[in-house]
Design brief:
- Chain B: The chain crosses the membrane at residues 27-50, 94-114, 126-146, 173-198, 219-247, 279-300.
- The complex is a heterodimer of chains A (275) and B (310).
- Chain A has 275 residues and is mainly α.
- Helix content of chain A is 77%, strand content 0%.
- In chain A, helix 3 (54-61) packs across helix 13 (239-274).
- The longest helix of chain A has 36 residues, at 239-274.
- With 310 residues, chain B is an all-alpha fold.
- Chain B has a single domain, classed as MetI-like (MetI-like fold).
- The radius of gyration of chain B is 25 Å and the shape is flat.
- The chains are: A mainly alpha (275), B mainly alpha (310).
């Protein structure tokens, strides 16, 4: 029988090996951004000979980089805002108001949980074009919101259902209307779930590639994943530049992740734990 | 979770209830709060999916109204296209790798780090990190790793005295490389689901099993894993639906090449439908994807006997 310490050592060794495989490529990208292209060729993995931040500074000085990030940021923020407002409003109706057809309409709105987004991409392109929205922020914001609604409504409704009933009864007796109750009680009491869904939607929007790729052609409105592919197309084999660019886009994501990981994990596991 | 009426209105006549509803703003609330979601969802989710079915019957480049009705020809062309067969097979391989390699790996690691200690938290964060990175960024980093001139794989091969391999330009290796990246990217997600479930397993059950002399492996196999079966079923559902939609990672790594050997259903419908403005043909591929997703979802629910909403 193995002793506890041997077992634990083995466990830690396995964990460290896996962690290196996970972190290795990211560190190589970070280091690679400091290297010259010829150094990269002979030393792709380890620390650079000298920490020359030229590549990084060059990209940071380029207005395009900030424009891409700004576009992504605005689109993500608007998507979060719309998803929270529209999703919470609908979930509130299903949670608080009994009306004819409520169950059917709820099932209809939850259909989105099963639908693969990619299957709708061609007609979405046509629709967005016919609405005259190509190359606008709305071309990304509206479809993203629509596809995020199902999960948002599911999570919001589960949360609203758990709010104490007595609260509504008291407010109702005092003559508080449904709309006011939603605005002054339900929403303020629901900040945890709003934060969870908000963070989750933000990350998805921030990383989205297929939809912007299809509906945005104008470089000035590119989101950062499109900008990064554009950059890669321009620098093709200058891996040190590309790695610097990728690293610079990853850093804010990592910082955001560390700050908001509680909500990200809750959003991911939230839906599944209830099931 | 049934929808109960929270208004506590005592049962009265219909007229009374309508009046009460008007006063309390029940109808106003209904009319203001519900339509935005319904309109957005119908306009940008349901309608496009219905459009896809409609368009798939036409030969259409997206301009003007579709008029050249071709019946099932688009589907016939799809079934005859060898690249589509490859795309289907590749997608199936992604599902298999996710179910048979990624999920067991995630489960094993979850069992190693589910207890709440500072080191475990650190490892958990690290393992989960790839999941939050954008697929495109991950794809670019890994195409560097696999690059024949600069990459890490080739310098490892050099160190072993071998010729460098252009992994992503190689028919044999390109798709296995992509599958590696998929596992790297998503195992942390499944691990997190298992950890949440493992932390919900009552401690006394595990303790009792240990007192009975069960080894850690036995505890895992006979106590913990059966008790988190639900989480495994749900994560399997995510794995399948996610694999069906893989696109972002392929584009920076191989863009479907070399010679169309690494397409998935989605890269296929993008390259052969949208890029070439064969809207009808691409829609047929989209409908296949849609039917596969729905079909698998229903079949999965049936066989596992679990609701897999979300």
């Amino acid at each position: 029988m193995k002793s506890i310490t041997t077992r634990n050592t083995l466990r830690v060794i396995i964990l460290i090996v896996v962690a290196s495989v996970v972190i290795g490529p990211l560190l190589a990208a970070f280091f690679g951004g400091f290297k010259g292209n010829s150094e990269l060729r002979t030393n792709p993995l380890w620390l650079p000979d000298s920490w020359d931040a030229g590549n990084y500074i060059g990209i940071l000085m380029d207005g395009n980089f900030w424009r891409y990030l700004g576009n992504s940021f605005f689109i993500s923020l608007m998507t979060v805002f719309l998803t929270l407002v529209v999703g919470a409003a609908a979930a509130y109706v299903f949670s608080q108001i009994r009306f004819f057809g409520a169950k059917m309409i709820l099932s209809y709105l939850l259909l989105g949980l099963m639908f693969p987004f990619a299957a709708a991409i061609l007609p979405l392109f046509i629709k967005v074009r016919d609405l005259g929205l190509l190359d606008t922020y709305w071309a990304v914001i509206l479809p993203q919101t629509a596809f995020g609604l199902s999960l948002a409504i599911l999570l919001f409704k589960a949360f609203f259902d758990q709010l104490p009933k007595e609260l509504f009864e008291a407010a109702y007796v005092d003559g508080c209307s449904y709309l006011r109750f939603f605005w002054s009680f339900t929403l303020p009491l629901s900040t945890p779930i709003l934060a969870t869904v908000g963070v989750f939607v933000f990350v998805q929007s921030w990383n989205n590639f297929l939809l912007p790729l299809v509906v945005l052609n104008d470089r000035s409105i590119y989101t950062w994943p499109l900008g990064m592919m554009q950059f890669q197309g321009e620098y093709l084999t200058q891996w040190n530049m590309i790695l610097a660019f990728v690293t610079l886009t990853i850093i804010p994501a990592v910082i955001f992740f560390l700050a908001a990981q509680k909500y990200i994990v809750a959003g991911l596991t939230g839906g599944s734990v209830k099931g | 979770m049934t929808t109960l009426d929270r208004t506590a209105v005592p049962r009265r006549g219909n007229a009374d209830r309508v009046k009460k509803g008007l006063v309390s703003g029940k109808f106003t609330a209904l009319l203001i709060l519900l339509p935005p979601a319904l309109i957005l969802f119908s306009l940008f989710v349901i309608l496009p999916l219905a459009d896809a079915v409609y368009y798939s019957g036409f030969s259409w480049n997206g301009y003007g109204a579709p008029s050249d009705f071709v019946g099932a020809q688009n589907y016939q062309r799809l079934l005859d296209h060898s690249v589509f067969h490859t795309a289907l097979w590749n997608t199936a391989k992604l599902i298999l790798v996710s179910l048979l390699i990624q999920m067991p790996l995630a489960l094993g690691l979850a069992l190693l780090v589910y207890r709440k200690t500072p080191t475990n938290t650190l490892f958990r964060l690290v393992f989960f990190l790839p999941y939050i990175l954008a697929e495109v960024a991950a794809g670019l980093i890994w195409s560097f790793v696999f690059d024949g001139d600069y990459g890490i794989t080739s310098s490892l091969l050099h160190a072993m005295g071998q010729e460098s391999v252009y992994v992503l330009a190689d028919h044999q290796w390109a798709f296995p490389a992509i599958m590696t990246v998929i596992v790297w990217k998503y195992f942390g997600f499944h691990m997190m689901i298992y950890i949440a479930a493992l932390q919900g397993v009552p401690k006394d059950l595990v303790e009792a099993a240990k007192l009975e002399g069960a080894k850690p492996r036995q505890v895992a196999l006979f106590v913990q894993i059966p008790l988190i079966k639900h989480a495994i079923v749900v994560s399997g559902f995510f794995a399948i639906i996610g694999s069906l939609q893989i696109f972002d990672i392929i584009i920076p790594m191989t863009n479907g090449g070399p010679s169309n050997s690494t397409h998935t259903i989605v890269t296929y419908l993008y390259s052969f439908g949208l890029s070439r403005l064969n809207i009808g043909f691409g829609s047929a591929a989209a409908v296949v994807l849609f039917v596969l997703a729905i079909g698998i979802a229903f079949f999965y629910q049936r066989t596992t006997g679990k609701g897999s909403k979300a």
